[in-house]
Amino acid sequence: MVFTFEESLQQRFACKAFTDKEIQKDDLDFILEAGRLAPSSCGFEPWKFVVLSKKEDNEALSKLCFNQENVATASHNIIILARTDLQAKDEYARKQVARFCSPNVDKDKFQQVLNSYTGATNAMNEEQLYAYANNQCHLALMQMATAAMVKGIDSCMIGGFEKAKVDEYLRLNYPFQTAVILSLGYRKNEPKYKKQRLKIEEVVEYR
Ligand SMILES: Cc1cc2nc3c(=O)[nH]c(=O)nc-3n(C[C@H](O)[C@H](O)[C@H](O)COP(=O)(O)O)c2cc1C
Hints:
Layout: H1 5-11, H2 25-36, E1 47-52, H3 55-63, H4 69-73, E2 76-83, H5 91-98, H6 107-117, H7 119-122, H8 126-150, E3 154-158, H9 163-169, E4 176-185, H10 200-203
Antiparallel strand pairs: 1-2, 2-4, 3-4
Flavin mononucleotide binds next to strand 3.
C-alpha cells in the first residue's frame, strides 16, 4: 500500500505491536533518506541513525524501553542519536560550517562565519547542547515516520526509555547520546482509537 503525503498524515498512528513481516531494504533506505534530508538549525545535522533489526537486539532494546511491545516486535528500530560537538572549537561543527563557505575563503572570513553559526552553541553547556540537538533529532524522527507511512509502513515514536541504559547498550561515547527511537514495521492491530486531535480553531490563531 502506498499513500500520498496527506494520506500518510491521516494514516500514521502510534502502533503498539507489529507483525513478523520485515521491511524491505529499499523501503528502509527511503525512510532513512527522509531522515537524512531533515532540516536542522544552522544545518548542523546533529544526529546519527543507528538501525537495529535482529530480533534479539530489538528485544534487548525493548527491555530498556519499559518492555514496550512495539520496540520488541519491530522489524527495525532506528535509534536517533544526538551529537553535541557543535561549538566553534569542534572539528565537526567547523566541517559543517565550511560547507557554506566558498572553498578559497580566507581564515578570518571563515572564523567570522563560524562565530556567527556557533554563536548560540558556544554559550551552551553539555546539557543544553544535548537539548538543542535533541530538538533537531525530532525533526528527522517526524520526517522518517511520515515517509514510512507513505510506503505503508507503520511506526511508533519512542520517548519512553531509560536513556543511560540505552546509551550504555549502544556503547555510545561523546559526542553521541540517545535522543529518541523510531520503531518500524507492519501493524498487528488496527488503531484502538480514532485520531484524537484538537480542532483547527483551537490550535490556530490568525493575527
Ligand atoms: C516524542 C514522542 C515520544 C513518544 N513516546 C512513546 C512511547 O514511548 N511509547 C508509545 O507507545 N508511544 C509514544 N509516543 C506516541 C504518542 O503517544 C502518540 O503519538 C500520541 O498519543 C498521538 O497518537 P497518534 O500518534 O496515534 O496519533 C511518543 C510520541 C512522541 C512524539
